[in-house]
Write a structure and sequence with these properties.
Number of domains: 3
Keywords: DNA damage, DNA repair
Protein name: DNA mismatch repair protein MutL
CATH superfamily of the largest domain: Histidine kinase-like ATPase, C-terminal domain
Distance between the termini: 122 Å
Structural class: alpha+beta
Largest sheet: 8 strands, mixed
CATH architecture of the largest domain: 2-Layer Sandwich
Strand order of the largest sheet: 5-4-3-6-2-1-7-8
Strand content: 15-25%
GO molecular function, one term: mismatched DNA binding
Radius of gyration: 29 Å
InterPro entries: DNA_mismatch_repair_CS, DNA_mismatch_S5_2-like, HATPase_C_sf, MutL/Mlh/PMS, MutL/Mlh/Pms-like, MutL_C, MutL_C_dimsub, MutL_C_sf
CATH topology of the largest domain: Heat Shock Protein 90
Number of helices: 13
Number of strands: 20
Family: Belongs to the DNA mismatch repair MutL/HexB family.
């Protein structure tokens, strides 16, 4: 007998499940994606004991017929694609046909489903990948999936899970991000008997953000709407004064698919450089719409990352959309232009024309390390002396804006010094200088001898 043998089917299923189902939150993600693909407008998620004892996801989508319900449990069974070319233009969240097979292989799994045209629904019971029962059942239109005793037949997998609190937190994070990404869908999330999240499903992203980020976030978000080279950027970003100490509050969706991508996060933060303090990050819910043929979502079984055919183009367009929104906001705030930092070129990208027209110059290159010809202390006497207007402009342009307080004070940094500027008093001084200059010009005009 040879040394190489085909693996038993149950071992194959366990290996495949390990790629898709890493933890309870993976189950929730896959089931929510299936519900959204089914056209659900209401999704309820219930968990017990951090999802290890029970996960239940209920939706009001189109449901499945008895025949489809039984086939859906098999590996690589899907309604999303039919041929290889379909992988180049995937428009749905799911497409691999692995989720239900993987989940049912490592749990006690029950599926209830019904279409609008069927008189009765269908119940499918699976245990450890083995179908135990397929029978008719009374149930409403849509699909309900119950996952019990997750990893009951894979004890090593349980050992690598984190604490119940961490696992519950990961599930809450998944539900929260889908609620942000799909404001038209009403989400309800229960942990035990406690209702932790409820959204109205009224397509109001700002309302969802205030529910999730808290009432203090109301009025702190800016709308983004930008289109360029066939790519659309939509969503909301926080104003420079509303930041957090981590990137946790940033969510990116590409063609409505929730993804994690460093390039997009970096483009977001580059657009804010010079406007937020080091170690603080803006909040953002951003939606990019791009030709599916320009993306590759078949990167990893969890479908959590994505590849772009031209990643720099995508990053640049996202950067432009955010910069435009920030420019509009700063213009409305009427912040003096010379407090907005010196002009710097973004790597592989010059200043955006709209911003140049407005005189807004953000520092957008590598991490912000201000360099000057002389230390600030050596410039003390020079700054104290009366300067020409160009010298003053150069001084202010090298200042770095840190923020604004109560719409009154501007906080700026220059070298090792921090400046607190009363912007109203500064504006009065500007007006005083202009009036003084005008009076001087008029005096000089009338003092001329006429012969």
């Amino acid at each position: 007998m040879g040394k190489i043998e085909l693996l038993a089917q149950d071992v194959v299923n366990q290996i495949a499940a390990g790629e898709v189902v890493e933890r309870p939150a993976s189950v929730v993600k896959e089931l929510i994606e299936n519900a959204i693909d089914a056209g659900a407008t209401q999704i309820t998620v219930e968990i017990k004991e951090a999802g290890l004892k029970e996960i239940k996801v209920i939706d009001n989508g189109v449901g499945m017929t008895a025949q489809d319900a039984e086939v859906a449990i098999a590996r690589h069974a899907t309604s999303k694609i039919r041929q290889t070319d379909d992988l180049n233009q995937v428009a749905t969240l799911g497409f691999r046909g692995e989720a239900l097979a993987a989940i049912s292989a490592v749990s006690r799994f029950t599926l209830l489903t019904k279409t609008a045209d069927d008189v009765a629904g269908t119940r499918v019971i699976v245990e450890g990948g083995q179908i135990k029962e397929v029978s008719p059942v009374g149930c409403p239109r849509g699909t309900q999936i119950l996952v019990e005793d997750l990893f009951f037949n894979s004890q090593p997998r349980r050992k690598f899970l984190k604490s119940p609190r961490s696992e519950s937190g990961a599930i809450a994070d998944v539900v929260t991000r889908f609620a942000l990404g799909y404001p038209k869908v009403a989400f309800r999330y229960y942990s035990g008997k406690r209702l932790n999240l409820s959204t109205p499903g009224q397509d109001d992203l700002l309302e969802i953000a205030s529910i999730i980020y808290g009432k203090e976030s109301r009025g702190q978000f800016l709308q983004i709407s930008h289109a360029e080279d066939g790519i659309e950027v939509q969503g909301i970003i926080s104003d420079p004064g509303f930041t957090r100490a981590s990137r946790y509050y940033q969510s990116f969706f590409v063609n409505r698919r929730l993804i994690r991508n460093y390039l997009l996060s970096r483009a977001l933060e580059n657009a804010y450089q010079g406007l937020v303090t080091s170690g603080h990050y803006p909040c953002a819910i951003i939606f990019l719409t791009i030709d599916p043929r320009s993306t590759d979502v078949n990167v990893h079984p969890t479908k959590s990352d994505i590849r772009f055919s031209d990643p720099q183009l995508v990053a640049r367009i996202l950067y432009h959309g955010i910069r435009d929104a920030l420019a509009d906001y700063l213009q409305q705030q009427r912040m003096p232009e010379f407090f907005l930092g010196a002009q710097a070129e973004h790597p592989q990208q010059k200043e955006h024309p709209r911003l140049q027209e407005r005189g807004l110059h953000f520092q957008t290159a590598q991490p912000l390390i201000d360099t000057f010809e002389q230390p600030f202390s050596e410039r003390g006497e020079m700054i104290a002396e009366r300067q020409s207007l160009p010298d003053k402009q150069a001084f202010f342009q090298k200042m770095r804006l840190l923020g604004q307080v109560q719409g009154t004070y501007i906080i700026a940094e220059y070298g090792e010094a921090v400046f607190i500027i009363d912007q109203h008093a500064a504006h009065e001084r500007i007006r005083y200088e202009e009036i003084t200059a005008n009076i001087k010009q008029k005096k000089e005009f009338f003092a001329k001898n006429i012969s």
